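Morning. Coffee machine broken again, so started the prediction first thing and wrote up yesterday's gels while waiting. Chain of 202 residues, entered below exactly as on the submission form.
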Amino acid sequence: MKTIKKITFLALGILLFSSFSETSNWSKRHDKNGLKVYTRTDTDGLKEFKAIITVDYSVDAIVALMNDYENHENWMSHINECKFLKGNPKTTKYLYYEMYMPWPLSNRDVVSKSTFLTYKNGAVKLSINAVSGIHPKTKHVRINEGKGYWYFEPVSSQKTKIIYQYKADPVGIPSSIVGWFLVDGPVDTISEMRKELAKSKY
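Came back before lunch.
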C-alpha cells in the first residue's frame, strides 16, 4: 500500500511539473515589464497562450479579485459582461461571459466552469473550462471548446507568481486575427489586473 501511495504522489508531481512547465514547446512572443507571454499550437490545431509574471500582491488579494466576477469586465480583455449562473463562489461556479469582437466579427460568448484548488504551499489554481447546457443560446456565437487555468504561487507574503494559460476554439475567426488576440489579450488583461489589484478593496 505504501508503495502504491508513493507511486501515486510521484505521478501527481510529474503531472503538476508538466502542467506548469514554462518553456516546453512554446515560442516567446512578449517580454516586457516583467511579463512574458508564450504561444503554441496544440495537436488539435488550437492556438494557446501562457502568460507569466510576478506581482507585488498576496495570493489572497488575487483570489479576492478573481472572485469579484461582476468586476471582470473592467479588467479582462474584451469582456463586455460577466454574470454568475450557479455554484459555490468559493469552490466551483459557473460564469457567463460575453466577449467583444471588432467589426465585422460577431461577439462571442461562453459559459465557464471555474474551480479553485488550494495546495499545501499556499498556491491556488483556478481551472477554467467551457461547458454547455447551462445557459440558453443567445444571438452571439457560442464557444463550446475552451480550457485553461490561472495559477497563483506565493513567493513571499506580498509577492505572487502568476501563470495564466488558455486555449479555445474561436469558431470561425481567421487564424491571423486569433494570433493577434493571443498576445495582446493576456498583455492587456495582466496590465489591467495590476491596476485593479492596486485598489484598496483587494
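The longest strand covers residues 108-118. Going to sketch it on the whiteboard this afternoon.
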